[in-house]
Amino acid sequence: MTEHPLYQIMHPNSVAIVGASNDLSKMGTIQLLNLLGGKYPGKIYPIHPQEETVLGLKAYRSPKELPEVADLAILTIPTSSVPEVLKDLGERGVRRAIIISGGFKEVGENGKVLQDQIVEIARVYGIRFLGPNCIGVIHPAFNLNPTMYPYLHQPGAVGAASQSGTYVTQILPFLAKSQIGYSQAISVGNGANLDLVDCLEYLGKDPATKAIALYIEGIKQPREFIRVASRVTREKPIVALYVGGTEAGARSSASHTGSISGPDHLFDALFRQSGVIRAYSVEDLYEWAWAFACLPLPKGRNMAILTHSGGPATSLADACNRRGLKVPIFSKNLQGKIRQLLPATGSYRNPVDLTFFMDMRVLMEKLPQIILEDPSVDGLLLHGIQGSSYFRSLTEVAKPWVNVPYEKVKKIFFPAMEAFVQLPEKYAKPVIASAFADREDDAVAFVQDRRLPCYRSPERAVRAMAALCQYAAIRSRE
Amino acid sequence: MTEHPLYQIMHPNSVAIVGASNDLSKMGTIQLLNLLGGKYPGKIYPIHPQEETVLGLKAYRSPKELPEVADLAILTIPTSSVPEVLKDLGERGVRRAIIISGGFKEVGENGKVLQDQIVEIARVYGIRFLGPNCIGVIHPAFNLNPTMYPYLHQPGAVGAASQSGTYVTQILPFLAKSQIGYSQAISVGNGANLDLVDCLEYLGKDPATKAIALYIEGIKQPREFIRVASRVTREKPIVALYVGGTEAGARSSASHTGSISGPDHLFDALFRQSGVIRAYSVEDLYEWAWAFACLPLPKGRNMAILTHSGGPATSLADACNRRGLKVPIFSKNLQGKIRQLLPATGSYRNPVDLTFFMDMRVLMEKLPQIILEDPSVDGLLLHGIQGSSYFRSLTEVAKPWVNVPYEKVKKIFFPAMEAFVQLPEKYAKPVIASAFADREDDAVAFVQDRRLPCYRSPERAVRAMAALCQYAAIRSRE
Question: Cα(B309)–Cα(A187) distance, rounded to whole angstroms?
């Protein structure tokens, strides 16, 4: 793994950054700020033709003046300067680079010539690089984030490789809301030197990466992709969002990353052959990858549904059947055990619906345990994680009349939440939750922070569960 | 409209509430708190067998003691007491009720007998009621919210009628995040007296309701539904989520609201015949209804895509084609106008991708105007609304080095946002935005507060736009 060309890019002891200045409107400057603010522990060498210092760091006039051979160079400079700077870096002995600058193959014939030129320079000096026209990489556990977007939430176990920089960086607020964390994330841009397949190979070997998310506009070497992906999916799941299979998608891909895309059915076949799970939206891509990263695989497709709301119960049940999951009627024995804990208005056959019921311990602890203990159940979907969001709203409204004592309520039900988040490991079965509140709710945040996926709607939870089942079926066919 | 039995339920001058007490763990008490906290302007008469006052209001021992005939009675009491209380209310002259209590048809044969009993009592006294087994109603502009969930965001123009109480109340945090507002919302529960079709008739006539969202587990009188829905959809759009069309969905519906559901294809036909747009998730249900409530209908399916990120541009394009929308290449003339405003790395044929570009005025004002002026364009999808969320994150990270001056940036681009939100009205064309931040971002909140839909992912925006196109096609066939 340490020999893989991406290893040094993702674990550099020193970074030379070309294009950062003291001008805050420049992308290079913002990248350096994030590298500094993210507490990158290695050495940083800004390269700038005029400045003495850049954001307080000593600056160097050119790559030739670097005091040591930097492990990694990052270039965010005008397109026309890229070949010369890359050559100078090569002369100084630098062998790994990320080329952020755009204006290459994606803009047409002239850009293609320029791209061929940098590929040739890299070949001569033995440089391996990401880009051009990419956004860089993020390795949260290594405190490496030289992109234009700050990484503010906790590291995770999703390895991402993307032909879109936005889906590595601007997507971060979305990911943070479900506490979906990267192990490492790589934007490949035009993939002129290192491409998606290299990332797949690398992330496949990375021990911190438990699942891989791919955003694909086109694949250059389909056979290589199948070879590598087939090997990786025998050990860890890959979820892919492919957007080049329609006329408009293909056209947009070409002008975005210069990608040659192929017809949809061809990619369907390619994914099937490689054991890759296909998603159709960026939300699904990351939510499914996160479910894979956090949960054990189900042994079958028999789902239990548990909630205190009939609407979500029915939505979950309907969505399960639509996605090929079963919601079997529980055995009389299991029904009997459940029924003892329910009010008279509750349903107990599956879905289990507590109806209006304030005791969260029954919902979050007792019932899930009884249900998951049963060998007929392969996984659990629970809608209705709810803590402070409801009580705080109510407190605000009720203030003139009464004090709604949330802190007292919280003390009672949070121990049940502790038990709840341990369910997947305890029973080796997947559990996915949903809630209409996000992390402003303390119960939602609690669950998410402990790596139990909690998504925004019942249907999203079902889709993620169905992806787990799909991959489990692929693995069991081996 | 004022003659419709639901009118008085939604506009009561006085409410008798049976089941509220001074015990905060009781649902009736929470309902009264919300009625008070929501600043309901009418008179409130708590009915309680022992208490002298309930939450500071004078309480009455029984319906018979009511000092006037209340416009509406709300019952949240044990199942077995419902018939007697309903009778007493009838004796006192009360003619409108909401029966929250469950334990009727949805629990089996005994419950069915009880339900028949209250239907008969209502017939005798001429009472029209919602429920049983429902959650009540919300009429934000009338300050009427006697449910267990506070309504904290601004009123809107979506009329909701639902066989799930959760999808009227617990869904509120979700709706608030996209500033999706109700005109009026009605939970019908078992629909023993007033049912979904009555709601449809009523909301169809309500002038503040611009679009209707229906959550359906089953329909009792399909012919009545078709008759009323067909008439309503000639004037305003109806979006429906039907969840009873699968085996598990049907079973869950039966135990939730005692509904008799029918096969999926039958409901497909029923919706088609009535001009109803079918959604498959609760997110889509409300997001589409909100788009309908806010935007003009497109004249055709030719979409323009505008963004500063290539990934979302390609996702939008691909999703458009998958949903039957076109992303035509712009005319040379339009391309020329757009190109003048882009950096060299930008794409201008459609999708339009600015790439990294800090001038929000170009993205939010100049380009949308040029594009929407063009007669070949029927609607606009814009990804990348972004204001404070990015800058505040960056400020936090960059603090030790520099002060990132967001307030200065904001002054420059907010005037462009003003122009942006006026686009749909100015050009009589729909515009739907997407962003990976929610309302913690001031630009997202700004747009949403002015009724320009801004959803959480590119694919969600496309789905809503496709729903608009589908309904526009239905309307144009007349």
Answer: 13
Do residue B44 and residue B177 come from a single domain?
A: no
The answer to whether the CB atoms of A356 and B27 lie below 8 A apart is: yes
Of B294, B317, B352, the position where a domain reaches its end is B294
Cα radius of gyration (chain B): 25
B319 touches chain A (CB under 8 A): yes
CATH number assigned to the domain comprising residue B234? 3.40.50.261
Which domain, by its residues, includes A217?
A: 152-294
Say whether pTM exceeds 0.90. yes
A380, A367 contact by CB (below 8 A): no
- State whether B55 and A358 contact (CB < 8 Å): no
Contact by Cβ (8 Å): B236, B211? yes
CB contact under 8 A, B256 and A345: no
| Chain B nearest-CA residue for A76 | B356
> What pLDDT tens digit does each residue of chain B (478 aa) get?
789 999 999 999 999 999 999 998 899 999 999 999 999 999 999 999 999 999 999 999 999 999 999 999 999 999 999 999 999 999 999 999 999 999 999 888 999 999 999 999 999 999 999 999 999 999 999 999 999 999 989 999 999 999 999 999 999 999 999 999 999 999 999 999 999 999 999 999 999 999 999 999 999 889 999 999 999 999 999 999 999 999 999 998 888 777 778 899 999 999 999 999 999 999 999 999 999 999 999 999 999 999 998 999 999 999 999 999 999 999 999 999 999 999 887 899 999 998 766 678 899 999 999 999 999 999 999 999 988 988 888 888 888 888 877 888 788 788 899 999 999 999 999 999 999 999 999 999 999 999 999 999 999 999 999 999 999 999 998 6
Do the chains contact at B174 and A457, CB–CB below 8 Å?
Answer: yes
Q: Closest-CA residue in chain B for A190?
A: B310
Q: Same domain, yes or no, for A237 and A313?
A: no
Q: Is residue B143 a part of any domain in this protein?
A: no
Does A33 share its domain with A179? no
Contacts of A199 (CB under 8 A, 6+ apart): A6, A159, A161, A186, A188
Which chain A residues are Cβ-neighbours of B241 within 8 angstroms? 315
Which chain B residues are Cβ-neighbours of A79 within 8 angstroms? 344-345
Examine the domain organization and report whether B29 and B69 are in the same domain.
yes
Contact B298, B258 (CB under 8 A): no
Domain closes at, from B294, B324, B345:
B294
- Closest partner residue to B281 among A255, A321, A457, by Cβ? A457
Which of A55, A315, A391 is best to mutate for the B interface (most B CBs within 10 A)?
A315
B90 in any annotated domain:
yes
For chain A, say whether B389 makes contact (Cβ under 8 Å): yes
Residues of chain B positioned with their CB less than 8 A from the CB of A400: 36-37
Q: Any CB–CB contact under 8 A between B132 and chain A?
A: no
Domain count, chain A: 3
> In terms of CA atoms, which chain A residue is nearest residue B32?
A398
B146, part of any domain? no
Is A146 a domain residue? Answer: no
From chain B, pick out residues whose CB is under 8 angstroms from the CB of A457. 174, 281-283
Within A5-134, residue ranges assigned H as helices are: 5-10, 27-37, 82-92, 109-125
Identify whether residues A217 and A246 lie together within a single domain: yes
**Given CB atoms, is B317 within the 8 Å cutoff of chain A?**
yes
Q: Which of B34, B283, B309 sits opposite A457 (nearest CB)?
A: B283
Shared-domain flag, residues A287 and A168:
yes
